[in-house]
Design a protein that fits this description.
Blueprint: E1 2-5, E2 19-23, E3 39-44, E4 52-56, E5 85-90, E6 96-101, E7 106-111, E8 122-125, E9 137-145, E10 148-155, E11 167-173, E12 178-185, E13 220-221, E14 224-225, E15 230-237, E16 243-249, H1 251-255, E17 258-260, E18 269-271, E19 277-283, E20 289-291, E21 337-338, E22 345-346, E23 376-378, E24 393-395, E25 401-402, E26 405-406
Parallel strand pairs: 21-26
Antiparallel strand pairs: 1-2, 2-3, 3-4, 5-6, 6-7, 7-8, 9-10, 10-11, 11-12, 13-14, 15-16, 16-19, 17-18, 19-20, 22-25, 23-24
């Protein structure tokens, strides 16, 4: 995941000396950097030098990669989404960096004004929003907007393996308490991860988090392993305060495209397919949000723009598909760019703005989301909740992005969390 430091948003590209913050990310087959899975780095915005260690998030990892057999890395199968660093967010004044410690389910803050931070300024646990079990709560995404910090996560339904227990939750944090601003079930039909694969709902719905090796064959759908498991990796805000949510498919950080079967004695390369998503929660003038396709928050899905999805699928941002049957290709990162009037859908990276008061307890934690590469085309849309021209994003081969294009990027994308 990444965040920029050193200059305000409006001057980032004009003043030399700015930095990106980048953090470690837990993914099978991907070794952590030299400073371990709890590290946050700075990289000059203009490039030209290696990353420098900025800070460590204490207690963010417990599971080592299998360095003796990295081609299989079997012991790391359950770690993605549960260890290392989730989202990063920089306060609006550039003085505080926030991160999510995935293992501790905690928000950690650092003084961002120096070249390094020897320890967190504060650490506060992100409360369970009432998942089926406290262990199902998986916070990840961070963003700042109008001097408030927002924290997003999912109830993973891992304890029950019941899709009805899946939901997305977003908190607002004012430095003292977390307040729920959005909660929404993740049970609706989506586009198919791969339209050519059979499905009993697994291929075209979010599924409970699961890496149980005894059920491994259940993840197979035809000739591919498909089991999209939601991870709320990033958030972005439109000019009117509407919230754009970027979901990553956690299962692909477990398997990868041609990863080896993690079961003992089985080294079969397995074809995996990813199926993330981008959703809109439109801001209501009276406060609160409407999920896409409800109230006056529109559904822009049409057969010409949604890649052939089922008639019941709702899409505020249709277009994150590519030919060949891949109807859901988002990689988890979203950005809202305010300068033109265009919707983008990136794959993983960010950079927030405002700064709430730092949390009031002391411990340690970390943050950083995944990164990936998949690009989406932009098309004109209005800056309000209901665009004059339907917001669309179309996928090509390189980086993804989706939000809106009418200001500067509030985030940057990178699918090995930045």
């Amino acid at each position: 995941m990444s965040q920029r430091r050193g200059v305000p948003d409006h001057a980032r590209h004009a003043i030399p000396g700015g930095h990106d913050f980048r953090a470690e990310f837990a993914r099978r087959y991907a070794l952590y950097g030299p400073d371990g899975g709890d590290a946050i780095y700075t990289v000059p915005t203009k490039g030209g030098s290696a990353p420098n260690l900025f800070a460590k998030v204490p207690g963010a990892t417990v599971t080592p990669h299998d360095t003796a057999n990295m081609i299989k890395d079997a012991g790391f199968t359950d770690a993605p989404g549960k260890e290392s660093i989730g989202g990063l967010a920089l306060s609006e004044d550039g003085e505080t960096l926030y991160a999510v410690n995935l293992l501790a389910r905690a928000l950690v803050s650092f003084d961002a004004t120096g070249d390094t931070a020897s320890r967190p300024e504060a650490t506060v646990r992100i409360p369970d929003p009432g998942c089926a079990a406290p262990t199902d709560w998986r916070p990840f995404g961070l963003e700042t907007h109008n001097n408030t910090l927002y924290v997003g996560g999912v109830c993973s339904a891992e304890s029950t393996q019941n899709r009805a227990d899946l939901k997305a939750v977003v908190y607002a944090y004012d430095g003292k308490q977390f307040s729920t601003v959005l909660t929404h079930p993740l049970t609706a039909e989506r586009g198919a991860v791969f339209a050519g694969s059979p499905s009993g709902g697994q291929n075209n719905h979010w599924n409970p988090w699961n890496t149980d090796l005894s059920n491994w064959d259940n993840f197979r759908a035809g000739n591919a392993f498909i089991d999209p498991q939601p991870e709320l990796a990033s958030l972005a805000f439109a000019r009117d305060g509407s919230m754009i949510l970027g979901f990553r498919d956690r299962f692909m950080d477990v398997l990868s495209a041609r990863g080896l079967d993690p079961r003992p004695g089985n080294d079969t390369p397995e074809l995996g397919m990813s199926g993330g998503d981008i959703n809109m929660a439109c801001a209501k003038p009276t406060g609160g949000y409407l999920w896409e396709g409800t109230g006056n928050c529109p559904n822009h899905a049409k057969s010409a723009t949604d890649g052939g999805q089922g008639n019941g699928v709702v899409e505020y941002f249709p277009g994150e598909f590519f030919s060949g049957g891949h109807q859901e290709t988002a990689l988890g990162s979203v950005a809202y760019i305010l300068r033109r009037s265009t919707c983008w859908t990136p794959a993983a990276s960010k950079s927030p703005r405002p700064r709430p008061t730092p949390p009031a307890s002391t411990t340690s934690v970390g943050s950083a989301p995944p990164t990936s590469s998949h690009r989406v085309r932009s098309t004109p849309c209005s800056s309000t909740c209901v665009p004059r021209t339907p917001a669309r994003c179309q996928t090509s081969r390189r980086q993804p992005s989706c939000g809106s294009h009418s200001q500067r990027p509030v985030k940057t994308g990178h699918m090995t969390p930045t």
